[in-house]
Amino acid sequence: MTDATTPSSTGASPNGEKRAHVIVLGNEKGGSGKTTTSLHLIVALLRLGFKVGTVDIDSRQRSLSRYLENRRNTITKSGTPLPVPHHIVLQKSPFDSAEEAKADERERFQQALRKILFTNDFVVIDSPGNDTYLSRLAHSYANTIITPINDSFVDLDVLASVDPDTYKIIRPSIYSEMVWEQKLARAKRDGVSIEWIVMRNRLSNLDARNKRSMAKVTSDLSRRIGFRLAPGFSERVIFREMFLHGLTVLDVIDEKTAVNATMSHIAARQEVRDLLRMLKIPEIDRRLNNTRTPSKDEDTNPKPSTRASADTSTEKPDAAPEAQTPPSHTPPGQSETAAKDDASADKAEQSEPNTPDAARTVAAAS
């Protein structure tokens, strides 16, 4: 057991305000889509009118921080108003001693969390693709852990060892054991349980044997080690294109650069809404239920949203910005509906001319 079991020092709100719901994106394997999932989750919450704080504890890659830096550059260059979170970057401790480093990182993490825990509705933490003390600590403060995995047995290995002939689960992985430890730590320290969600990312449209086998094994594994399965994001070119501009499929680009939204864009937004539903948070469901789907004209000729101010700091953020109120849409359907639309969506995307500038391919806000 890690020393995440030490008493919580995030403090209490002076006015008895409610703590933010903390969501940690975690997976000890890189390339699983953690940062893409993080940003789409962040922007979706902002567009629903929630206040969101974010923490990047991957001081080496800084993928979420670079994504948000690109987003601010897009705001500056294009004048396009985009919602942004209150962002903090946590650096790895400079101390050589393991004990000193742990104490330093624990103190700075708790200080950072105190700055945004009572001024936001949600805090989203993006963790590194390897085992670090900061990552274990962040997991122990989560209300919800989301673990994206690519839809392959190579990536499933981060959760469990599987018999190659029978597909039976041999034993949970080191990461699964770590999550279990942090669940116990959270319960002991704060009396709070952690919800664990695993989402299968980069799903193909083909009904391949590997895909069916993955579905069975992950379903069996969810019952054994205690997580919920969520529909992930399909493999789409648009997700990769938008990184340099810090954009998501939920963003609005002004009339000078916007193009017609394709079926693929619309299906991708549905996948984001499906993920929001899987969080099973009543206030999110209520806001989703009070929105509607934009018409075709609204989808292809969006109106710019209200500019939200941004601040990215290294442990010294200003006050969190007010998130804008999103355009409305109907409640999302079941994930099977999005999956059914996906085949025609990808076909529509392939028929479009290639556009090097991702900013010109972004669809309207959800």
Describe the structure.
The chain has 366 residues and is α/β, with parallel strands linked by helices. The chain has a single domain (17-352), classed as Rossmann fold (3-Layer(aba) Sandwich). The chain has helices at 34-47, 63-78, 98-117, 133-140, 153-156, 174-190, 209-225, 237-241, 263-278, 282-289, 296-300, 335-350, and strands spanning 21-25, 52-56, 86-89, 122-126, 144-150, 160-162, 169-172, 195-201, 228-231, 311-313. The chain has an eight-stranded parallel sheet, sandwiched between helices. Strand 6 and strand 7 form a beta hairpin. The longest helix has 20 residues, at 98-117. The chain is globular. Mean pLDDT is 77; it is low at 254-259 and 294-366.
Write the layout of secondary structure elements.
Layout: E1 21-25, H1 34-47, E2 52-56, H2 63-78, E3 86-89, H3 98-117, E4 122-126, H4 133-140, E5 144-150, H5 153-156, E6 160-162, E7 169-172, H6 174-190, E8 195-201, H7 209-225, E9 228-231, H8 237-241, H9 263-278, H10 282-289, H11 296-300, E10 311-313, H12 335-350
Parallel strand pairs: 1-4, 1-5, 2-3, 2-4, 3-10, 5-8, 8-9
Antiparallel strand pairs: 6-7
Helix pairs in contact: 1-2, 1-9, 3-4, 4-6, 9-12
